Amino acid sequence: MKLSGGLILYYIYTQYYSQRHTADIFKYYDDSLVLYHSFFKNPIDFFKIILGLDLNREYFSFNYYIEMNNWDTSYKNSLMNESRLLIKINAILNLIGFKNYFFNSIAFILMGFVGEFLIFKSLMTKFKFKYPKFLFWSIVLFPSVFLWSSGILKEPLIILSFGLILNSLILKRKRKWMNISSFIVAILIIFKVKFYIFICIFPALISYIISEKTKLKPQRIIFTICAIMAVIIFVLGKMNNSYNPLKILSQKQNDFITLSELFDTGSAYKITPIEPSITALLKAIPKGAINGFFRPFPNNINNLLQLFPLIENLLLYLIILYLFFKIIFFKIKINQDVKNVLWNSLFFITMLFILIGISTPVIGALVRYKVPGLLFLIIVINLMYDQFKKHPTN
Questions:
Q1: 180/202 same-domain check
Q2: I want to staple 161 with a disulfide (CB 3.0 to 4.6 A). Which of 189, 292, 311, 373 is the partner?
Q3: Residue 76 confidence (pLDDT) above 70
Q4: 276 and 376 share a domain?
Q5: Tens digits of per-residue pLDDT, 330-365?
Q6: pTM for the whole structure
Q7: Which residue range forms the structural domain that includes residue 311?
Q8: Which residues make Cβ contacts (< 8 Å) with residue 162, sequence separation at least 6?
Q9: Which residues, in sequence order, are bridge partners of residue 237?
């Protein structure tokens, strides 16, 4: 099934978005061919680039990076470049699979599936779901997650990292170093590949761990962490350097708006440009939340592919509302462990969707960037449904 998802994605990007240099599923692979060929011409250069020892920037830029489209992005003020790790992974896979695109694609599909399986295994170990098949298939086959985790993209790596994190936090091993090392590796992958997801997931993880160890109510911890984050943003926002989060967000939004106008994506919608100030950020949050949680709206639909995310949103939120009222009606008492996961999942989802809603003016990109949040929404639904079904009246 996951392989069929890869074929569907390949068909979409060859039939509907046929400009290869802008196609997301090809750009990391195509750039990796430059590194692949360097292995045979100058293997020392290859290993220096892979290991990050390319200290002579002028030499490597002139001989290699100038031939790549995605090694350096337009986001010069970002803390991390989001593409290099994927290019390096593809370069290594090229050596194993003789630069066969479908070999690389299968490898990424496998990464995503391993991540989904680890998520399923970890949740089953902790909560003993009454309907494990429903949990498994909803994680694997939910359309957006299914599609965007089935290609040479960042999403499979992110999902694999989520699986490693949950596995390290939930499964009890005699060798604790295994849990610690897998947690660190997963966090580093997210940090390198999608820094904005790291910004959203790290506070939620801290909140979860504190609540798990102290048994304090997660909502109180979340409120405290939000207050600390607000102070940090305020302090850094007063500094005139590359670590100013307000400037980074403003620049990323501006770059995205420029790109959407330049390439005329056909699925762009207007968002209000924000200035690098606390006031502008606070004003942008409500619209960002609406965009992140509820777009695409019916008037944003230009083709059949954009209709599916609209249906997904309606389905997810109707199910959540139904389960929420059922739990209230039957006065179902949810245990502390479940509350901890529910609250911190919603904490992560809310931060992610607001951030995406503020900075992303293109429906196609918005839908794809929401995938990590959708995965946790699926987990939230499964936990609520399981609590409902375990209630004595059911």
A1: no
A2: 189
A3: no
A4: yes
A5: 888 888 899 999 999 999 999 999 999 999 888 888
A6: 0.92
A7: 195-394
A8: 115, 119, 186, 372, 375
A9: none
- pLDDT recorded at residue 393: 61
CB 348 within 8 A of CB 206: no
Mean pLDDT of the chain: 89
pLDDT tens sequence across 138-186: 999 999 999 999 999 999 999 999 999 999 998 877 778 888 999 999 9
Contact 162, 372 (CB under 8 A): yes
Residues 96 and 140 in one domain: yes
* Residue 158 and residue 227 share a domain: no
Largest CA distance in the chain: 71
**Tokens 């009606």 found at:** 329
Assess contact for 9 and 17: CB atoms under 8 A. Answer: no
Same domain, 168 and 204: no
pLDDT, tens digit, 9 for 90 and up, residues 227-236? 999 999 888 8
CA 139 to each of CA 161, 273, 381: distance values in angstroms, whole numbers, following the listed order:
15, 35, 11
Assess whether pLDDT exceeds 90 at residue 108: yes
Instruction: Calculate the alpha carbon distances from 259 to 34, 152, 342 in Å.
Output: 25, 22, 36
pLDDT in tens, 274-306: 888 888 888 999 999 999 999 988 888 877 778
Sequence-distant (≥ 6) Cβ neighbours of residue 329 within 8 angstroms: none
Residues 249 and 379 in one domain: yes
Residues contacting 216, CB < 8 A, separation 6+: 210
The answer to whether residues 256 and 359 touch, using CB atoms and an 8 Å cutoff, is yes
- Per the listing, tokens 């590194």 go with 35
Residue 3: both structure tokens together: 């392989």
Please tell me the total count of domains within the chain.
2
Instruction: Tell me: do 126 and 207 sit in the same domain.
Output: no
In this predicted structure, the answer to whether residue 79 has a pLDDT above a threshold of 60 is no
Whether residue 108 sits in one domain with residue 250: no
Measured in Å, how far apart are the chain's first and last C-alpha atoms? 33
Q: Which two tokens stand for residue 56?
A: 């002579």
Cα–Cα distance measured from residue 320 to residue 350, given in angstroms and rounded to the nearest whole number: 15
Question: How far is residue 291 from each of residues 66, 81, 294, 311, 363, measured CA to CA in Å?
Answer: 36, 25, 6, 15, 9
